[in-house]
Amino acid sequence: MNVRRLIPTAALATAVALGATALTACSGASAAGTGKDGKLDVMASFYPMQFLAEQIGKDHVKVTSLTKPGVEPHDLEITPRQTAALGEADLVLYLKSLQPAVDKAVAQTPAKNVVDAATFTKLEVHGASGHDHAEGEADHGHSHGESGEDPHVWLDPVKYAEIAKGVGAALEKADPDHAADYKKNADDLVAKLTALDTEFKDGLKNTASKTFITTHSAFGYLSARYGLDQEGISGIDPESEPTPARMKELQDVAKKDNVTTVFFEALASDKTAKTLARDTGLKTDVLDPLEGITDTSQGADYFAIMRSNLKNLQKALGNK
Questions:
Q1: How many other C-beta atoms can be found within 10 angstroms of the C-beta atom of residue 28?
Q2: Among 170, 154, 251, 260, which Cα is nearest to 211's?
Q3: How large is the C-alpha radius of gyration of the chain?
Q4: How far is CA 159 from CA 21, 22, 167, 236, in A?
Q5: For the whole model, what pTM was predicted?
Q6: Label partner for 199 (CA 20 to 30 A): which of 18, 110, 116, 279?
Q7: DSSP state of 192
Q8: Helix/strand/coil percentages in the chain, nearest 5
Q9: What is the pLDDT of residues 154-172, one digit of tens each?
């Protein structure tokens, strides 16, 4: 994964303003039409949005993702064809501030219904250590949206369930004829996410250590929910060697907090994690931020990969 590209403030402000205008303009839109096959045409920005649309829409929707499998979503560049498709979609589902290119395209689209998933839950500010930090404090180079808010909400099953409810309501509004089905499917998905939350709570409450090291500081919400502390190797390009200062800092953290494992992710190089692990005598394993799924992912869908993450965290953190 490349280091997150920081968005110039002026450009971000323009995109935000345009986005707000687009959302305001679309919020009062009448029920969307359906395609030739009778299905609602939903355009999702990346996998976690695609998964929600598919699970809640089921047979009534045709879902297309802007981010193809194996593409790192933060660095997505949108083609003119995709921009045109956005304008023709019955419903556009995205997560504002995660993908600058999507924010820009959405701001320019005449789509009937534009839904920002971030409006269905409260975004928080997380640093590379997984804790909330004061505005202006260093974020170790990991660029987020407005005011440094962390967009990785789907990694917290409770927040993802809040978004699922919002998406269900948006589908009901866009396609009232199938409202009852959307409501039932959303309720079913929320129940599954609530059960997953219980699995994480029970599975992580008696761990020997609470600290884990990861190449990507995507796990702030998960850490906050289950009382863990992520230490991200952020501010360093995953393709390059960690700085000696950060290496020393992480070595100290590993020693003090009984860290056993350095985690890397499925869509990015494991070079940084392996370098750090070798120099600190630690193991490596996968902690998947679930930004996309490929044939090498540790599971076929959101639930399978989240359970794989839980198992890997339990293994790394040990038992009291």
A1: 6
A2: 260
A3: 20
A4: 26, 25, 12, 29
A5: 0.83
A6: 116
A7: H
A8: 50, 10, 40
A9: 999 999 999 999 999 999 9
